């Protein structure tokens, strides 16, 4: 009888699933795989095949995570926090260096990037920490400092790799979470003014030389067209040449002629917009808008404080990845190397994206 009731309860919960959420994500992934194929077919066919395999793995992970009651993360958040720290520490002992950064752990046929997992765990553990230690809302600078202290070890370890892009995304997602936790406006204004005042100090004393160069390139990419400004300049040429309707599938000359570096990863949007034009961009950006708004809607309709904060945090991660990556390809944001989730090639990134959607779905079906 008990097993029968459990099965009935499971099916009842499954009926609560927002199926359009995963269909929305799969539409973006289909666009991604076709664009990866177009961008890399002249060199190799392995990239789009690997991304297809990772899609299947991601879907399996999505279903597994959906079935896990998200409230278990609240119960074991201290274990998850410790796991996050140990995982990020392991990068310095086991990690391999690529492009001047030590962010990846090589596991033979695949490589994982712990910071990608780390930012999701930050959302979960921070949401749990706030829900447990601040019952009503955050008030005053002291409460913000306590919240910052919670994420500081993770930020420092990611910044040490160095991975400035992920650090910025965590900070911006942190801002979303504390704002949605009804932080008082006086503290928000103080933090905003402090952040603006901190920017010059960070630029001159915290950023490395190549990071400052990225900022200068963002401000004036034409100053070094054959050097630091090459990527963003070629990206803007690709996007502009797509015009209204695009050049058509497999006709992205900037990637085919290898003018556009990292065409299947960081600058995959440039390839897509060159082939599909402005109208294709409206479709793609609309899909991301719908995806993020669905996550926000689930947050808004969830009475449980922990589940609501987790959904807002995940929505923040998707949103800031979108803004940073698309802004980078259009020359309105500095180049940081952050992928466009669900679109850019990368197994770890795709897997984590599906896991995040699984967590959101879990909030929907297990919320009270």
UniProtKB/TrEMBL annotation:
<feature type="transmembrane region" description="Helical">
    <location>
        <begin position="188"/>
        <end position="206"/>
    </location>
</feature>
<keyword id="KW-0573">Peptidoglycan synthesis</keyword>
<feature type="transmembrane region" description="Helical">
    <location>
        <begin position="277"/>
        <end position="297"/>
    </location>
</feature>
<keyword id="KW-1133">Transmembrane helix</keyword>
<keyword id="KW-1003">Cell membrane</keyword>
<keyword id="KW-0961">Cell wall biogenesis/degradation</keyword>
<feature type="transmembrane region" description="Helical">
    <location>
        <begin position="340"/>
        <end position="360"/>
    </location>
</feature>
<feature type="transmembrane region" description="Helical">
    <location>
        <begin position="117"/>
        <end position="134"/>
    </location>
</feature>
<feature type="transmembrane region" description="Helical">
    <location>
        <begin position="141"/>
        <end position="158"/>
    </location>
</feature>
<dbReference type="Pfam" id="PF01098">
    <property type="entry name" value="FTSW_RODA_SPOVE"/>
</dbReference>
<dbReference type="InterPro" id="IPR011923">
    <property type="entry name" value="RodA/MrdB"/>
</dbReference>
<feature type="transmembrane region" description="Helical">
    <location>
        <begin position="309"/>
        <end position="328"/>
    </location>
</feature>
<comment type="pathway">
    <text>Cell wall biogenesis; peptidoglycan biosynthesis.</text>
</comment>
<protein>
    <recommendedName>
        <fullName>Peptidoglycan glycosyltransferase RodA</fullName>
        <ecNumber>2.4.99.28</ecNumber>
    </recommendedName>
</protein>
<keyword id="KW-0472">Membrane</keyword>
<feature type="transmembrane region" description="Helical">
    <location>
        <begin position="52"/>
        <end position="70"/>
    </location>
</feature>
<keyword id="KW-0808">Transferase</keyword>
<dbReference type="InterPro" id="IPR001182">
    <property type="entry name" value="FtsW/RodA"/>
</dbReference>
<comment type="similarity">
    <text>Belongs to the SEDS family. MrdB/RodA subfamily.</text>
</comment>
<keyword id="KW-0328">Glycosyltransferase</keyword>
<keyword id="KW-0133">Cell shape</keyword>
<feature type="transmembrane region" description="Helical">
    <location>
        <begin position="21"/>
        <end position="40"/>
    </location>
</feature>
<comment type="function">
    <text>Peptidoglycan polymerase that is essential for cell wall elongation.</text>
</comment>
<feature type="transmembrane region" description="Helical">
    <location>
        <begin position="164"/>
        <end position="181"/>
    </location>
</feature>
<keyword id="KW-0812">Transmembrane</keyword>
<feature type="transmembrane region" description="Helical">
    <location>
        <begin position="79"/>
        <end position="97"/>
    </location>
</feature>
